[in-house]
Amino acid sequence: MTTTTASARPGERTVGKSSPGAARGPRRRTGRIRRIGLPYLLLLPALVLELLVHLVPMVIGIVMSFKELTQFYIRDWSIAPWTGVDNYRISVDFDAPVGEALLHSFLVTCGFTVLSVGLCWFVGTAAAICMQDTFRGRGLLRALFLVPYALPVYAAVITWAFMFQHDNGLVNHVLHDQLGLTDKPSFWLIGDNSFVALLVVSVWKGWPFAFLIVMAGLQNIPKDLYEAAALDGAGVWQQIRRITLPSLRPVNQVLILVLFLWTFNDFNTPYVLFGKAAPAAADLISIHIYQSSFVTWNFGTGSAMSVLLLLFLLVVTGVYLLLTSRGRRSTHA
Amino acid sequence: MRSIRAAAVGAVTLSLALAASACGGGSASGGGSNDSPKTLTYWASNQGASVEVDKKVLQPELDKFEKQTGIKVELEVVPWSDLLNRILTATTSGQGPDVLNIGNTWSASLQATGALLPWDEKNFDKIGGKDRFVGSALGSTGVHGQDPAAVPLYSMAYALYYNKKMFADAGVTQPPATWDELVEVGRKISKDGKWALGAEGSNLSNNIHQVFVLGKQHGADFFTADGKPDFTSDGAVAAVKQYVDLMAKDKIIAPGNAEYAQNQSLSDFAKDKTAMVLWQTASATFASMGMKEDEWGVAPAPVQSGEPGTGTNTNSMVAGINMAVFKNTDNIDGATEFVKFMTSDAEQKILNKAYGSIPPVKAAQSDPAFNSPATAVLRDTLATSATALPQVPDESQFETAVGTAVKELFADAAAGRPVTTESVKAALAKAQQQMPTK
């Protein structure tokens, strides 16, 4: 066994040693290949995991969306008959019941997402700005603000479900019995108010994340900017408008994108709040697709809906990133 | 260099191992074998007050089985909310238990997956023959004309449970036998924060059970003879409207019940807030809520007129739990032996006594424990006036679609919006359109 090659370290030149010139070329090439290949080799486990956890299920889901996958075939989904684009056609035929229900659910989700993300951002930002100055009890208050983010989602949402109950819930007790704001106790878990209930829980759950991110963003704004502005006579509101918000723009761009994706796909909140059959007013698309797939056992149609949702989110995210990066470029210019 | 090379080798090995493991599993093989004759896994449905209670009831019996046969049974009690999804996952992956409990209304839907062992004559002979079981219970084990996909284990039926104190306070001397009587009694009781009848308006399965029975009383079946959805027939519309009208028009169900789905109506009953509930085998639950046996009575569920019986005087669905064997079990003989054990006369008495249900095995029903006033009503209902839910592959979808329609109608009633024949028909038409067309 020769040890000639083993003595060469990565990046070490072996030229000029006593080895014959004919052997120098291939050896150098081997070393270069090894140098270039090693990082990829080390990345391989991560790539394989990514492949297994994300790509393979995604490809299977896309294949399923072209199949008639019902209870008759779930034991071996590969033998389910091909239906071409039928599942997609059914999903986007908005005059037929399946498509109409999907469109309704999509519109509900869009409205819900805009309101929830907007409110989360607003409340989170307002709280972070208020907490910028030091005062007695700030640490405690900051920790309290993060409690909804730290609680397990299931436990938190089920507690909300108890509070929203018509007969014994805390919400009606306060609004109706104590404050007299409503003529009679309202229904929050069924009917039209369910949208409000869902929004309240979603914002309660989501704003601490916005608070955390904005708070981190605020740390990067130099204090002297505010001091200079104050010397120039700028009030608090002007400082927020002219300094804080523009400085937070890169943070907000990421924050809003993340909140949008999380909220649009949120499954836990509506499922724990309403069960597998959400009221029409709060029929978010995640629950709708779950119901199409796992409750009515129409896995093919459910997969097609999932692919459509994925495409929608990809397009929205792509456009958003394009617009925000263009905005950033023009700002820098 | 050596450490880098070792890391690279490790990385590649790990990648290959992961890739290889991903290629494993796959779909279920058909047939079953006896490769693992000394063990069985059993998914039991949650029958008792909690999963822990079930373990306490079942484990001594499983130990008894192990002593008799040398086969160890690994028990997992699965909550109802998870059971169907767990079964579907097991069906898809082929990695399920050997033996499992299923809700009997799912029999035909799960039969269609082909994952369950068909109980042909040969298999039934291994557990003592089909004749040992009550006919109505056998009626909910799969599509008629096909070998059953499961064997009845516990049977239940709906009855009218009434709160004696609330009846006495309202001057009502006997439980209502017809719906008209129930509404009449209900109006006497429904005042001063008290309500006559409890409902679980957001529980899809419960909604289906009630409207199916009322549908039978109106001559409707929700499915045609060849298994196609028929939700908008006059009888089906009348049935749904009659049920929702108990809240919307008759005002004998509290509006708050529209959002009930976690058996809150039973809790109201135990707290003297609701005088009646239509329920299956509720005695154990009432006891767990602190009610004494003499505080409540039980009567057959109402009919439109006359006495309960088959046909249009059906007053209950055949409720219950079936026992099924996964086709690809590694211990087919042991699994069959276990089903034989669990459906033996002796075990049927022990288990059904523990759960307050009725044995679907004829010989076990003769035990005096099933002749108490409460259980006798359930037993007679099962024998004479209960009908199995439609045994069609789309039954599970039917529960969701129509159950949701009834839930939405209850929400309308609770909010004070009118519930008319047209609105009921529209809701049912929408439900029917959501059913699979293939």
UniProtKB/TrEMBL annotation, chain A:
Pfam families in alphabetical order: BPD_transp_1
Keyword Cell membrane: yes
Biological-process GO terms, alphabetical: transmembrane transport
Cellular component terms (Gene Ontology): plasma membrane
Residues annotated as transmembrane: 37-66, 106-131, 143-163, 195-218, 247-264, 303-323
Cellular localization per UniProt: Cell membrane
Bilayer topology term: Multi-pass membrane protein
InterPro entries associated with the record: ABC_transporter_permease, MetI-like, MetI-like_sf
Protein name stated in the entry: Sugar ABC transporter permease
Organism: Streptomyces chromofuscus
From TrEMBL, chain B:
Top-level division of the source organism's lineage: Bacteria
Metal-binding recorded as keyword: no
Protein's UniProt keywords contain Phosphoprotein: no
Secretion signal span: 1-22
InterPro entries: Bact_solute-bd_prot1 (IPR050490), SBP (IPR006059)
Record keywords: Signal
Listed name of the protein: Extracellular solute-binding protein
Organism this protein belongs to: Streptomyces chromofuscus
